[in-house]
Amino acid sequence: MKTIEIAQVDVNDRTYCISYPLEDDLLTSSIARYGVLVPVGLLDRQPPVLVTGFKRMEAARKLGIARVPCVFLDIDERRALLTAINDNLKRRLNTIEKAWCVEKMLFFGFPEEDIYETAKLVGLPARERTLKTVRAMHSMEEGARAFIVKHNLPLAVVEQLLWFDVDEISHIVRLTDPLNVTTSIFREAVQLLALLKVKMGRIDFCQFEGTNDMEALRQALKKATHPLLSRLEEKFERIREACALPPYMSIKVDPVFEKEWIDICVRARTNDEVDRALEKLEALSGRGLLRGILELTHGTPDRN
Amino acid sequence: MNSLTVRRTETRGTIVRDCPGTQHHVCCGYKTIDLIEGCPLSCSYCILRGYLNAPGIGIHWNTTEIIEQIRQAVDREKSHILRFGTGELSDSLALDRKLELNRPIVQFFGEARGPLFELKSKWAYIDHLKSCLNPYTVVSFSLAPQAIVDREERRTSPIRRRLKALGSAQDSGCFVGLHFDPIIIYDGFEKDYRQLIDDIARAIDLTRVIWVSMGLLRFVPGLMKVFIEEGRRNLLHGEFIKGEDGKYRYIKAERIRVYRMLYDLLKEREPRLFCYLCMERADVWHEVSGTEVRESADLIRLFDARIREFFGGSP
Q1: Residue A80 in contact with residue A51, Cβ under 8 Å?
Q2: Residues A159 and A205 in one domain
Q3: The complex's ipTM?
Q4: Are strands B83-85 and B116-121 parallel, antiparallel or unpaired?
Q5: Domain membership flag for residue A302
Q6: In a domain, A274, yes or no
Q7: What domains lie within chain B, and their CATH numbers?
Q8: Are B60 and B34 in contact (CB under 8 A)?
Q9: Is B283 in contact with A199 (Cβ distance < 8 A)?
Q10: Do residues B214 and B183 lie in contact, with contact meaning Cβ atoms separated by under 8 Å?
């Protein structure tokens, strides 16, 4: 098998690279022990251009290995890209890698039909919007890319992230990276941030600093975008506290105070418990507390 | 007007339908005639952006077939006065000068002398229809402050021209309708709506306005993303929640506040105006107007009474 000196290859030429990130601890350990077993693929040019094996090359370089096994490919550029994509399909690609497959096909001028087919193959929606998103992702900073991979965010969420400029994305990454990010709650937080941006023209990120979990951040954002709803929630909580309900009783309202009714739930095992619940309800009604809750659900919280 | 493709659509099945309404909200029992699907006016908030997926504009040319469908609908439902309109999936007038699709329908309703036909529009041109307008055709315009027209309804006629067209329709012997829909909450909207209602009162005879609808902005979830991407500050200024029908709408307390303000302003001008809420909940109706409108049948009865008031017992 042929080998090549790593120094002869421009490892910074990422024309065909769809691997992200290149650092892979497991692969590095394996190469440290057994060496590079699978040859890297090189385009037969001067200097040779790396097509497949970017992670292997990176690990070998870091380990101070001078030569790696290689295969020279006598193919054109488009074929080289397809080879690179194909070589990576045997593992699960992250969102950045999927995007790169499509982005590089766009760069090499593949017909749209072929690009959509590849998009489907890697698990991206085959639609125009995907191409737009992938193009826009090109300007993303390294921190944002790492964040997307770390939290396993799908393209739909990346699309939302692209509502923001580079600085704002950095702020969002700094703000949420240490938190318990899940796709659903992050998606919601991003939408609230975007809403805030449209409403206010800019986002004052300082007001959200120091938040220690995603749910608290979501609440803080909701307070900023939905002040009326937040006030209704607070009023409802105050009334509920004043009700001092026993554990076997509960009062629930529609979370957005749209449905006009309230749900009063009593869990009773004996007739005595039913009587006590009825007494309690009568007392709450007498004190106007139930009316207070109904005013919230009827959209007239300031009536009294 | 833009250069959207206008295509001929074959009329298969019924295109005269009940307004789909929306779950848990009171609907007015309107009948829609989907003569045109798609709209060249492309208002930023238009619900069609979230509903219709075919590009361009589809036209049903077969007016004979459509009139037959209207006739069947009238024969089927005799319990109340039917109201029909072509402004659900398009603007009734925006393409009509060129296509002349409304003329035979207007004539049909004039001859039928029972049900009413509403032309609902933001395009202030009715001259081509003047010769056939009759009392059974209601010419209606959607109205909003000019600031909203300038930013969100950029291809539509300016408000002063819509008001002029309304005046002209009244001069032709038509009843007219006013539609404050969508009402948009933005910075300073209260002042602008006051001004708008002043302008309306100056331009037309409010005693001959058959109905006034009020509907605050609501939209399907997909449009939230579009409004954010387009940075629609006016549209997103207010506070939205997802209603029981899954659509975004302003929080109820705000809806009541704004409807009340407009309702009072309109009633101050003409106490006998018939104002109704489009797709609202029973409790909002109660809070705004003091009227018990619990279900669609209640609202339909109010419409019947209003129409009888205008037609002196007939239709």
Answers
A1: yes
A2: yes
A3: 0.88
A4: parallel
A5: no
A6: yes
A7: 6-307 (3.80.30.30)
A8: yes
A9: no
A10: yes
Indicate the burial class of B117 (C-beta count within 10 angstroms; 0-12, 13-18, 19 or more). buried
- What's the whole-model pTM score? 0.89
The identity of residue A160, as a single letter, is: Q
Q: Are B153 and B217 spatial neighbours (Cβ–Cβ below 8 Å)? A: no
For residue B156, the SS3 value is coil
pLDDT digits (tens, 9 = 90+) for B131-154: 999 999 999 999 999 999 999 999
Task: Determine the residue among B228, B287, B289 to mutate to test chain A binding: the one whose Cβ has the most chain A Cβ atoms within 10 Å.
Answer: B228
- Number of domains chain A contains: 4
| A150 and A221, same domain (yes or no) | yes
Answer with the residue of higher pLDDT: B157 or A180.
Answer: B157
Residue A37's domain spans which residues? 1-91
Same domain, A205 and A128: no
Give the type of residue at A19: S
By three-state DSSP, how is residue A2 classified?
Answer: coil
Residue whose entry in the numeric block shows the structure tokens 């004052």: A204
Asked if A298 and B229 come within 8 Å (Cβ–Cβ), the reply is: no
Answer with the one of A24, A57, A91 that is the final residue of a domain: A91
Reported as a single tens digit per residue, the pLDDT across A209-234 is: 988 899 999 999 999 999 999 999 99
Identity of the amino acid at A152: N
CB pairs under 8 A between A and B: 64
Nearest to B236 among A160, A163, A198 (CB): A198
Beta pairing class for B248-250 and A3-5: unpaired
